[in-house]
Amino acid sequence: MNSEELIGFLVTHQEALVTCLADDGVSADEREEVVAALGEVRDAVTEGRPAGSAVRRLRRALAVLPEDSPLSDVLTGHRYAVTGTGAPSVPSAEALTSLLTGLSAGLSAGPRGGPAAGAAKGVAEEPAGLGPEELLARSRDQLLAAPALTEREHDEFLAGHGPDPALIRLRPPRSRPDSPPRCPRFQFRPGTLEPVPVVLRVNRLLRADLDPWGAADWWLGRNTWLQGVPADLLGVLPDEEIEVAALELVEAG
Hints:
The chain is mostly helical. The chain is built from eleven helices and no strands.
């Protein structure tokens, strides 16, 4: 199932997607991630940028759908399929906008006019009218809030090693132009400025030099293949297992 087929499937089954995301087993953060990922795909398509990393983020986000739902069954069967040998087709901006509008409205209203998703579990209701751009900004703020090197440590690393394109560096938004880049600390051995080799290898697979946000999102978000957050599993799982999980994601693009 390529990118265009995936979006077409979600547009056609928009109501079912809302119902699945409103399930008690899906958290508010997981719902936000699906909407934010869709917004990132739409922005890339609208601006004429490659959408591959954004689509991969969307595929990861959709992994939270309940296993017994018909949508999950279809998506699981195709999630890692690669079709054809040419460049993947790209969904239209119009289809993405339509899907985002319907999804945001459906999740705000709750299924069948009931309470907003998450209310039954005591989860704080999401602000009404929160659009994909705001959700994307919130997601990036969460990544920027992750533990990172201090400015002095960052300068010390650059002085000793020079810039390494395999390391993730997150540049704050334009609203904070004077803020230094954030270099997530999980990339280094504890208490040192020595990069973890498996992190560098995975970052190269994820093309962190071109898409540092997507790479950071992979490391700091829950991974269904690994059953945890990859950054938290460094030194817990074998390096090879983490690399295989990243490779599966890349090959799915």
